[in-house]
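Re: the pair you flagged

First of the two:
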Amino acid sequence: MVKATPKATNPYIKGLWQSFMVAYIALLPSFYMIFSADNRFALQWSPVKHAGILMALVIYGLSLYLAFLLLKKLFAQNTPVWSAVKAGATMLVWFLLIRTMLSIYIKSRVGIELEGMDMELPASVTLLNSKITKLCLYAGLPVALLLIFKLKFTNFTQGLLKLFSPLLILIVLFPLTYVDTRESLSNIDPGFLGKEQKANSPNVYMFLFDEWSYVRSFEDGRVRDNLPNLKKWVDTSDSYNQAYSLAEQTMFSIPRYIFQNDPGFRTRDNESIRDDITHMRKINANSFFDIAPDGWFKTAIGFWLKYDRLLGDKIDYAFSTSGSTTGSELSAWAECRRHLARQLSFLSRFGIKASAIETDFVKDVMAYSTDVVDGKSFDIVNNIHVPTFGFFHYCIPHHPFVYDRNGRRDDITDHSIHVQSPENYLHNLEYMDTVLGQIEKRLKAAGKYENSLIILCSDHTWREDPDYEHLRHTQTEYFTTEVLRHVPLIIKHPNQREPRQINDKITLDLMQNILKDYFDEH
């Protein structure tokens, strides 16, 4: 009796599956964190992110597969050339595999991406991130393996892809176990919603604008003419002309601001704070939210920092838009474009403009982050009718520079959004001024302007201001504490009508005293 020959796998299906596997390897550095259980909440997971990843995998995989079919059609009859094509394809797989492993290792050692921050990298990261090391690993290692194993090298590579092919099923199914963590006001304790607010009910609203420069907003203590809404705030508030933040970087300044009333936290060094922030840990310290009386609704909404992790159950509602590492809650197509754009960034080294997709993504992230924080602050003001302590961290006027007074600009390029020029900063600053006008209108419309303590401030100044270029490389105490920390501080007390200029030098840790005085009265 003749045994039946096992049915061979359709070569087209096999090739397509292998192409998707190669795409998975190439794209993995941009989404590998989803496989960490710690990120089930921290990533603000949603089906949109999952769809964006799957779309990128399909597009990348199909592109590879169609390119391979085209080469096969052209060169399959020419044995030497076709052998060279298959060898090149095998080396490409190993290049992508090595690059992915190296990228994930470096990211895991460094933590989250700290753009523009001076930090000492681990020695292993510095070595692996060097051009010579990358050249040896990306090119030298695949060539060496090819020379050693020859024809077996291709077979081994195909076997490796087959071995890891179940990962494609994992990326389809595993994220379905995630809970959709897109936040809405439905997450708030119903006890805070729907109540009628008592007349003259007190509130505290803090609006912190990232990288807001005092010297670009004021001149000789007066608001510059191009910021009319800021001038309206100053005309009925206390303005501090020598206010200084508690650090020169967001990672340190905002935690030090929020936890300023905890003596133990005040003595912590920046490295220990960095460790908590990069690993998204809850900070066990008293915050200025603890100064508020029981029964107050306490909320922190903002950009980049994970306020839900920082504050835990210390407040009633927290939300943050994601930072550069995890992306933002955009459309599935925008998420897909972001993943693909990272694969094309190398083309810029050859003068090929391939970063327009990334530019659109950056524009989308800034618009999304600003709109979400602004929208949620609007929701809090309109829907929470008990005494409220709200902290709202806006990402403007921080770069990238994607705004003008009227909103998002359409005349910007992949290069111009990152150019640290006074003109670009001014455009973002003018949009911030527009937002200040909107904040005033919505507080007045909700009947919460007159009776509230309203604070406008920043975490640090515009660090890349060209006027500081002559000081940038000195890193003296004067530069880091006097220049980079000089920020606007405007405080409107309840029912305040007249402006007041305060020229005394103060730091933002005076906020705990202002809050204590306010809460003692209410």
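Second of the two:
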Amino acid sequence: MSTPRMSHNLFKLALIAVFFLGTAVFQGCDSMMSSNETEQEIAVPATQYDKFRHAHLLDRAIKYDDTAKKTGDGTLGIVFAIDPQKVLDRYKVLDRYKVLDRYKVLDRYKVLDRYEYENVFNGFAITVDDALGLAEYNEFLDMLANDDEILWFEPDFNMDMPTSNPFAGSSGQQIPWSVAAIGGTTSLTRSGDNGGSVDVDLYILDSGVTNPDLNIVESIDFRDYANNSADVNGHGTHIAGIAAAVDDQDGVVGIAPGARIHNYKVLNDEGGTDVSVAIAAVEHILTKKLAEPSTPMVVNMSLGEDIGMTSYTALDEAVKAASDAGVIFVVAAGNQGINAETVTPAHMEEVITVGSYHAAGIFSPFSNYGVHVDLLAPGEGIVSLAPDADGTSAHVQMTGTSMATAHVSGAAALYLAKRPEATPAEVRDFLLGKAKSFVVGAPTGTTSQSVWVGEADATFRDGFNAISFAGSDGLWDWKFDWKEFGESNGPSKGKVRVSDSSQCPTGMCLRIGGEYEGSKNRGVYRAVNLSSASEAYLSFNWRRHSDEGYYASKPAILEISRNGGSTWSTLVTFPNGRDGGDMNAAYFDITSYASADTRIRLSTNKAGEGEGYLYFDDFQIDWKD
């Protein structure tokens, strides 16, 4: 459905009066444009208007028919707020349209209505056309500035989406490395155990959401020029999948599996939008919150813009009003590698602003930074859902603070499932208190804390981020490095190695191949101390690569020992064959094997030279006392 708009009979074609909250286009956080990257200078009136906010963005609020700005008249987008008390004093009744009706129709300007705002602030969004084709609006701006019933007015701008790298999905469900890395496998719903869902509403303000692996309960297209909430771009579906993909046996699994997704499309298919469109969505959310104040709501805004100033915009005013009413906003810091203090809405105190880090726990160089960044989350090479209308759950990999933000939105939803009455401040305090400080390389003054949703007390993890058997990027140290058995060639060559093969979606992973005729086992093993664990869980991703398959007489296996390797139990026998897609997920409850010397062993043989390999990644053991 499309969002309601103002009645056209209230706007004469030449109704010059309304205010400008600009047509500058607002963009998704995976490629926000800096405010000083302007393409054309538009003259700002010499008079300095106290209520003309963000006048430096005026040139970015002019729309032309082509990107070279050579055709078309150049229409001006405007958003303004009115003073209800002055309207009441003048007309003895609070009729907001009186402010618009009393403007005289001018021959030069045509005014078209776009949106009416009532709850986020009292105001309107319009477009203004200079009938002379000169795109000169000084006279119009003078009228706004001199109208004592208008509180403020300002321009409206644009954002882009990230470049995605699609790859074919495999059968079965995948636990993305990023979900496991922040404790998702031991969270409230234990992402990846094919069960559990989160009873919370999650609003995705993005390019649309389209995938059967999501619990979509509402879809609205807020663009005033379209009525199609489907996701063509892919950004919105990817975000929703990270936050809340259903925990079944297909697709991927999200941080808050099965949370109710409200698909609020505000971005066009190229990833841009006007700020007034985003404000319209926030207006709708606030209206719902006021009608149902006890219903928890989480809003994911993986979009934003560098405006070059720290002062609030109209969008910030709208978000603040909704936050004050109890709506939780999680916002991307942005990808310009700058201080987030000038990025709207990331610079707001009322939102949870999220930066990005790599699988190795290193702060992403593209991520915006500074004191306004509240939390960090995985944002590089993130696997999630792609739009798919044929009943399958395709996967795609994307990078950006947009992806990081979705992890924190899922974390907020998990907390609200337990504490639905929590305020935005309480949600933020909880997430900050639970966060783990392990990210390195963040600029001075920027947090090193990663969001954490696990209920485990500690984590053993190896994401194989270096050509070494000594990897350890969890919160606890393994007893010793990976040790080989069978023919030993070292970590960088041979049948058992850490590989940077194209078979590793995250860049590097463990590759194991057995001896040619299958007369020997080859593999690796490693040990952990789980002596105090009351619960323990093992998760990892894996895939096969073999043209001929494995010998059935000696299949590839994963084993576990609770007595230092004296006896072994088989956890899984990997099937023969070849995987053509991304990695498969594996998840095991290993509580019964917890001891002071719990060991994990992987072994396989290969069916022919250069074939028959198994690839493993993101080995993780989570445990709690």
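The CA atoms of residues 456 and 560 lie 20 Å apart.

-B.
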